[in-house]
Backbone:
């Protein structure tokens, strides 16, 4: 019996237990599931070429032996096999391949294989997220069949594109725009058409990147412009009635039209690196508290908030999780040969930050894989909500990568290539993830130029032009950043020649090229001002 039938029969308790029952687990029960599934994965891994490459010829007999003997990995350890989509070397045959940007790679994209079991698991986790997005209390939810779902997701072969296809046999959903149409549209077109259809049909559920949701939100304050709520109106009777009511309501309250004036959403799911920054504004504008989830191409969807919206919990059966403390990660920055220590879920400390390490379950490819995402452990348990497993908040990518609103990820290697393409004699540089007055993130590059003959303003424009061209090559969505997010994703600052050398002399250390600390940047700027 699929979910549609269970909803029709009002089997709400059974549905909750099936999809959200893991929230009743103790930490010991959670770890038993982790160890059992990891042992099954080790068995699969030991029988394939990729597994023998990573684990060696001798199969680990326990999870502890696996962690002790298998090194931490990155995509470079898999690239020659996965980029060729060599199915015969994998633990299990994939049903499809999912791609994403490869930050810092020699090629613009990376691919990950998804087995039938992985897709089935991913279907369950996403339905769980849909259920929880409509929940305000343990055991209660408001999701039903035939909900109208605003399609704010990238299509296949990106991860979010699986969603409409994999839930089709379980749950009837009316996507706006319809799947076939949405998959042939650009990212911007999908959002505009979906909003237009939502004016006519209504919207029950919405899933999108938090940064994109905020762009849509801001468009409602531009009612008289072509990009605002009036601009997307095609004067259908239902749209006119809906917008007129919203207009009257907003005028009574002395403000511009907001999404909550047009729709009464049951649930809103958000994702992306800037979700923590935007969630309060999203709630204020859409009238519903968003449910943050976390996922990625290599791990799939691995975490969701609960009905309380106060921290992410990890699904126990998607990946095996390890955590690198920040102190261990810093040792790795100082010594590339250093192998950081990892800890398990039942060994964490509340308040500390960790880099996530995952091993795919269900026949996936990645083992002890450094995802590159940083989480803070908020608490080890939440007695008020009856949650007895750790809860997390997403912090950011690791400092070696600059993630801009979930659209593009920029590495030191990428910047080196782009600077080389510029043809400018740049002697030194560093880059940070910065924020504007509205807390929107952007990529801020500081450079020193050797010699003269070009003005600072001209140099800034040349660098920006070459970087933008390169980033459009490595990430197809980079070109949408300026239009969709209404920010210039790149800011270049020219420093006087010798600034960073003087910093090194004064503080007896070199400045890290990627994401030096806020206070280190202040000291560099002070030196630049004095020159």
Residues:
């Amino acid at each position: 019996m699929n979910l549609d039938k269970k909803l029709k029969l009002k089997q709400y308790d059974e549905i909750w237990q099936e999809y959200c029952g893991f929230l009743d687990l103790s930490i010991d029960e959670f770890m038993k599931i982790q160890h059992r599934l990891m042992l099954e994965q080790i068995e699969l891994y030991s029988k394939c070429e990729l597994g023998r490459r990573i684990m060696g010829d001798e199969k680990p007999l326990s999870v502890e032996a696996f962690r002790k003997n298998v090194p931490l990995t990155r995509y470079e350890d898999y690239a020659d096999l996965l980029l060729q989509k060599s199915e015969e070397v994998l633990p299990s045959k994939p049903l499809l391949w999912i791609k994403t940007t490869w930050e810092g790679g020699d090629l613009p994209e990376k691919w990950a294989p998804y087995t039938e079991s992985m897709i089935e698991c991913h279907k369950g986790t996403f339905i769980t997220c849909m259920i929880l997005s409509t929940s305000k209390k343990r055991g209660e939810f408001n999701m039903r069949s035939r909900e109208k779902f605003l399609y704010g997701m990238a299509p296949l072969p990106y991860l979010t594109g699986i969603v409409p296809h994999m839930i089709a046999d379980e749950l009837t959903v009316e996507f706006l725009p319809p799947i076939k149409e949405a998959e042939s549209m650009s990212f911007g077109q999908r959002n505009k058409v979906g909003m237009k259809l939502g004016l006519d049909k209504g919207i029950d559920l919405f899933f999108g990147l938090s940064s994109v949701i905020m762009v849509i939100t801001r468009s409602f304050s531009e009612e008289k412009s072509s990009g605002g709520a009036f601009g997307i109106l095609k004067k259908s009777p239902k749209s006119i009635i809906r917008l007129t009511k919203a207009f009257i309501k907003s005028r009574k309250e002395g403000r511009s039209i907001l999404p909550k004036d047009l729709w009464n959403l049951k649930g809103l799911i958000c994702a992306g690196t800037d979700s923590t920054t935007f969630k309060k504004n999203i709630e204020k504008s859409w009238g519903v508290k968003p449910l943050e989830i976390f996922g990625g191409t290599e791990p799939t969807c691995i975490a969701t908030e609960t009905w309380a919206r106060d921290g992410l919990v990890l699904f126990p059966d998607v990946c095996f999780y390890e955590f690198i403390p920040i102190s261990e990660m810093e040792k790795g920055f100082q010594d590339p040969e250093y192998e950081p220590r990892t800890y398990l879920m039942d060994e964490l400390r509340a308040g500390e930050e960790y880099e996530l390490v995952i091993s795919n379950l269900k026949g996936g490819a990645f083992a002890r894989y450094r995802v590159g995402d940083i989480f803070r452990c908020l608490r080890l348990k939440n007695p008020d909500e009856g949650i007895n497993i750790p809860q997390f908040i997403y912090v950011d990518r690791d400092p070696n990568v600059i993630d801009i609103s979930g659209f593009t990820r920029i590495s030191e290697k990428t910047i080196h290539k782009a600077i080389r393409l510029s043809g400018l004699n740049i002697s030194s540089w560093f880059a940070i993830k910065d924020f504007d007055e509205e807390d929107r993130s952007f990529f801020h590059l500081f450079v020193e130029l050797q010699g003269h003959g070009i003005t600072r303003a001209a140099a800034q424009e040349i660098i920006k032009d070459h970087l933008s061209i390169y980033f459009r090559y490595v990430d197809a969505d980079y070109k949408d950043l300026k239009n969709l997010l209404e920010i210039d994703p790149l800011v270049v600052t020219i420093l006087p020649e010798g600034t960073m050398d003087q910093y090194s002399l004064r503080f007896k250390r070199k400045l890290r090229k990627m994401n030096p600390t806020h206070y280190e940047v202040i000291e560099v700027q002070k030196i630049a001002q004095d020159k």
Residues 223-229 have pLDDT under 50 and may be disordered. The two ends are 73 Å apart (CA to CA).
